[in-house]
Amino acid sequence: MLSYVYAGVSARTGGNISGIFRRAVESDSWQATGLPDDTHVHAITVHPGDPSIVYAATSKGLYRSRDQGEGWTCLVTPAPGEQMWSVLIHPANHRTILTGCAPLGLYRSEDDGETWRRMPRPAIRERLVGAFPSRIMRMSIAPSRPDEIWAAMEVNGAMYSPDGGESWQDCSDALVNLSLQPHLQSAILTKDVAEGMLDVHAVCVSPAAAGTAFLALRMGLFCSDDGGTSWTDLGIGQYAAHLRYGRDIVVAPWSANTLYACVADAARGQAGRLYRSQDRGRNWVQLDRDITVRSTMMAVALHLHDAAQAHCVTRLGQSFSTRNGGQTWHPYDLPAGAGTAVALACG
Fold first, then answer.
1. What residues have CB less than 8 Å from 114, skipping those under 6 apart?
2. Is 126 in a helix, a strand, or coil?
3. 205-216 per-position pLDDT tens digit
4. What pTM was computed for the model?
5. Coil, helix or strand for 47?
6. Which domain holds residue 158?
7. Is residue 69 part of a domain?
8. Which residues are within 8 A (CB) of 122 and not within 5 positions of it... i.e. 6 or more apart?
9. What is the CATH number of the domain that holds 143?
């Protein structure tokens, strides 16, 4: 079976094509997949046990493909005004799938996506009223703690569930407290200078440290090892002071101590980098080489079984891939007219 890279795009803020493009890892060309027209794609997940199955969280609901993107079926139709923004396959039980929404909410399936239950709305207050409805951008579960879910919210911080999503604890007070430091203040959508610390885009938990959560947010990369009571700045700005906008952070599926992170100069920036840490965020090295990034580095995708592969995509559709652990990179730009690239997956 061929391995593919999948890129999700949205024409809301640029371009005129929304949907998913796919490219065989060994190919130079992208192909459009069969999602309905004008479907804005927010997240893509390849099934870890069967790469022919792909899930997409979109403006029109949660979709599934059983043939690597050729055809799609809507599994969860959103309520009026609702959209799906994230999708997670449980690492310890692949029959359990969760999708996160905007406004704040989530659905859960325990039978491979055949039936779904709308979970109780998280009792998390909206801190930045007037920006846009809080949305769950990413969720993460450590296999050794199967009932514990971490969720990243844009623009509302982070939250944690100890019981599979039945209830949630707010983990954002400490993020707000960090915004008392001038270099961690940012207000774009509102007048609240804590906005930048609450603008969380991704969260991950490493099997090597199941009690530690890592966040990528507007003001950098942060971690907590006490359930979100406090957060520590990982200091990504020391490597390039103008590139601290954190957009993505993931744990390598083949190395629990290895993290990859996408950083940039701004949400709609003109520069970005891909960093790798092999000691769970203590130290970072720039992985991308000999490439010129012309907009925000938005997402990174890793192959489940091939540690030599890494793929990344920028807001304006530049895509780069390495098949030798970052020694060399090759560009594979998305087709002309593609909307803002916001999601990437490989499998």
1. none
2. coil
3. 999 998 999 999
4. 0.96
5. coil
6. 4-199+208-244+278-286
7. yes
8. 104, 105, 106, 151, 159, 161, 167, 168
9. 2.130.10.10
